[in-house]
Amino acid sequence: MALLVATKACDYVGVSRKSIIGVTMPGFGTTDRTYNNAINLMKALGITTKEISIRDASLQHFRDIDHDINIHDVTYENTQARERTQILMDLANKENGLVVGTGDLSELALGWATYNGDHMSMYGVNSGVPKTLVRVLVSYVATSGSLDEASNAILLDVLDTPVSPELLPPDENGEIKQKTEDIVGPYELHDFFLYYVVRFGFSPAKIMYFAENAFADIYPREFILKWLKNFYRRFFNQQFKRSCLPDGPKVGTINLSPRGDWRMPSDAVSKVWLDEVEKL
Question: Is this structure's pTM higher than 0.85?
Fold first, then answer.
């Protein structure tokens, strides 16, 4: 999505797409599918392409902090995310450019980003766009005829790929093992919760009632309740990441930027909301 925005911006102002530097940074969890899609999409869109592996730098860092590479914990994952951000920031300094962030509104709401890793950029162009809308917009671009057939095919395959940070090694078949929605829950549910929490300030009971009716033919009640509880827990616990966001545009009716509509202390307590969820 961020790449599509950048190419469209260049087209609007008449600047060569070669001024965009796309960087793929393979790590321990990168699969052939996502790697090839990244390389082929950058080539199809006509931007400058760079490949910088993070494996050696991450291994060196593990040695520096005495971390066992066979322990696939949060240190293992966040090392990779922060190494990627360091590369992008330093490359931007070298090229006198800006790091355009790829994180979206849904990830910010759940805190599904590494603090000072992919959480950070110089401009968060997707920060006001929820994941469900990102999917709709990418699908629209891929089917509207605005790009060539090769780009369209790649975008459609990207949409068909499970959402993942790919920070854990693939499975025995070389497929993505770390699937975001298996860990934090379906984004269509979380985006639903987010809208009614932030836009209207509805209570957990009211949101649960709406969700049960909206998703009656998709998810059972227990499933919705499980992820509603997870939403409130993460939404409160992860505010500290939103308190220091890079600038980004407000696109829809809600935004979580501390410089826009959202004011929330990082030490806010979720007990009142979670107590109500427990009674549902």
Answer: yes
